[in-house]
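Table S2 (continued). Query chain:
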Amino acid sequence: MLKDNYNHVSNVPNPSIKKGTIKEKLIIFLEETLYKFQEHFKGKINESEENLNEQLGKTLSHFAKSQAFIFQAETKQKQAKGIDRRVDIGVFKHFSDPTPFFTIESKRLTTAMIKSREKEYVLGNDPTKFSGGIERFKQNVHGVNLDHSALIGYVQNEDGKYWYNTINNWIQELIDGKINSPLNWISNDLLNNICGFTDLRLVKCISDGNKINQTKISLNHYFINLCE
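Corresponding output:
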């Protein structure tokens, strides 16, 4: 989880961003900044998810000072029923906005993860608690009522190509019913590689699955290689 101690970021409207294009501008900024994060924090192969998230939040906030969006740690995701959830980072257009227009969740990717958490990028070990990354978006407890968000994987061993194949194998097992889940998993939930594995510092993928409320969720997936 992230701490709410980022440097203050002024939210100045950017006239160069045309109406309806802010998500596209955000994705460009996010990818550029993740390369900077990778360069600065490579070697952190034993770092906790909490510490990496804190550093990621500060990195995004630092480079966003002249941008038309604000990154907020531990953004509340209000639930229709039950306890409100929090997503690692919410992205806002303006400081007065009550809800984010984009959300970011992050997970460690390491074969050293304990057995009960090894598939946490996709799903948790208890299908009733929805502790996995992708399943939280499908359940609409993260990215609440949004159609676009992102998942970041901190690669702490192997590489992004390995995790792309491993994660897709897990999703395929869900599609085939080999892993129990109350959610409906389909082929669109599989990750589609969009970078050709030409630069393993940052592997970029997309998926377009369904939420439990029958709306769509497009996810940008980024595997940051901290091993090199």
